[in-house]
Amino acid sequence: MARGSKSFAMASKLFDRKTRERAWLLYAWCRKCDDIADGQDHGGTMTWVADGQARLSTMRVLTDAALRGEETGDSAFDGFGLVMRECAIPERFAHDLLEGFALDAREWRPRSQDDMLRYCYHVAGAVGCMMAVLMGVAPDDGATLDRACDLGLAFQLANIARDIGEDEAADRCYLPEEWLVEMDIPPGEHMKPWVRPRLAVLGKRLAKMAAAYEASARHGTGALPPRAAWAVLAAAGIYGDIAREVARRGEKAWDHRVVTPRAEKLGWVVRSGTQIIGRARRWPATTPRPANLWTRP
Prior knowledge:
Blueprint: H1 6-12, H2 17-38, H3 52-67, H4 75-87, H5 91-105, H6 113-134, H7 142-162, H8 164-169, H9 177-182, H10 196-217, H11 226-249, H12 262-275, H13 279-282
């Protein structure tokens, strides 16, 4: 986790030891699957792969074996199977995540905003649900799982906004085709210099969407133990700053990779520590989830 996501690594230290180690095991599986799918090493430079379907098959075989309690010979998958059994995390969420990799393997592109959000669910919202159960949320607590899914969507929307250039280099694009048509951006031209003002508009749109899902997710923190809520609120702030920085930079958002500086991460650790007291009153679980937000299947 320290190599693959410095933002999540810092937030994970706020968990109690057992929860922290379980979160690391779950993250290791997610990271390993992502690396297999994209030809990466701990989330490094993404490369185009010619054998996407074979890589997907490998992930599915190893994941299914781990879920059955069989040793796979790969510590990331073996640890994943362990945490799934210990925490009674519904297997459907793991299969939902693999469906996200299946979309990438067949070089899928989102046509509509709903298509993009459905992809965000598969690659991040499902992980939010798994993390919620890992932290003690009942698997049948649909309302809290919806909020956990919202945080995953917020994270992935921030990723999409930040990584438009990196995705384009790997021949991928997660901006909805309808958005590109709306902005009169020709196919495959979205990273050209003359398009940057229009792309900046879409970057701000993604940041605004991420903020809405982040705000909704905070209403689920009252269902979490205090230290888990601390970690979640810190992660929300730290990762939310990525989307906010993309919006702030405008046309220059893709000149250099956006990161949240360490000092600002520490600031969120302190700020979120003060927010865990009275969080259920500040963000009541009874507050209706905004009707305009996309809802997980």
